[in-house]
Amino acid sequence: xxxxxxxxxxxxxxxxxxxxxxxxxxxxxxxxxxxxxxxxxxxxxxxxxxxxxxxxxxxxxxxxxxxxxxxxxxxxxxxxxxxxxxxxxxxxxxxxxxxxxxxxxxxxxxxxxxxxxxxxxxxxxxxxxxxxxxxxxxxxxxxxxxxxxxxxxxxxxxxxxxxxxxxxxxxxxxxxxxxxxxxxxxxxxxxxxxxxxxxxxxxxxxxxxxxxxxxxxxxxxxxxxxxxxxxxxxxxxxxxxxxxxxxxxxxxxxxxxxxxxxxxxxxxxxxxxxxxxxxxxxxxxxxxxxxxxxxxxxxxxxxxxxxxxxxxxxxxxxxxxxxxxxxx
Length: 328
Ligand code: ATP
Prior knowledge:
Elements: E1 7-12, H1 20-33, E2 37-41, H2 44-50, E3 53-56, H3 83-95, E4 100-105, H4 107-120, E5 124-128, H5 144-164, E6 167-173, H6 180-188, E7 193-195, H7 203-215, E8 221-226, H8 235-245, E9 250-255, H9 267-285, E10 291-296, E11 299-304, H10 305-310, H11 317-326
Parallel strand pairs: 1-2, 1-4, 4-5, 5-10, 6-8, 6-9, 7-8
Antiparallel strand pairs: 2-3, 10-11
């Protein structure tokens, strides 16, 4: 029998992503639209365990759509990985008469939510928000587009100094296991080389390609390196390796770091987050649970959490191919 949902709770969890606030706003406002009570939980699963709850209504999320980060705060909770921790969280939810939970975060957040759902049969719906875009079942995660635009904007600036001094810049971007940011920002900013975790270019090929670029008349070059690239060298080691083998180059390194996930979300992320927030509430009202909201071919879809976690979001071969062609 379909469980009647009257009151929901919402958390933001894991790494913060621009657009989490827009998703929260959409969850709270659509809950209000459908006459559901809504509780915001501070600090992700940590706040669920501590009972750090706050009643939210349509007005409590005004003027947050344009803000980066998350007003609910995010946290990584080791305690939620234990059965005792999850039991405390469940008891707090039951005591507050909450019927369902919306989790906004990445694959770790969804793993926790799925285990929680299995243990206590508690309805859970996930909204994918992570700058890495590494979640199966959705073309885009909330925050990815903003991070891409942040990276491209900075690379454009680095390009100015690179070309003024005929320099070769190695720019490290986020992506330990996934090359979405590196590859797409690299194409968008016209990088000469892009090193990602999914493809092993090999150091010899990198040297050949840079030497080829130099001989063909390029006076400055940008190499984008994802944190988890396959060469086995970090960005500083890569730079020294190239400097040693191609002494004609004046090499510099720039590590972009946390600025990539900061700042106001792009319009794309705000709209995506708004659509996903509304869909999450409508799935719960429809008696659905243990699902993640996704966007496939610009349509809102629901994917089993289990699938979203276990399967890989692969980089499109066509994007890899055009990157190869254009970095000639
Ligand atoms: P991002 O991809 O941006 O890092 P994430 O959601 O993957 O976001 P994690 O830190 O991996 O971030 O996970 C967030 C939280 O989810 C963890 O701090 C923990 O509380 C919970 N979690 C992760 N894995 C598990 C697990 N196996 N069992 C229970 N809870 C988990």
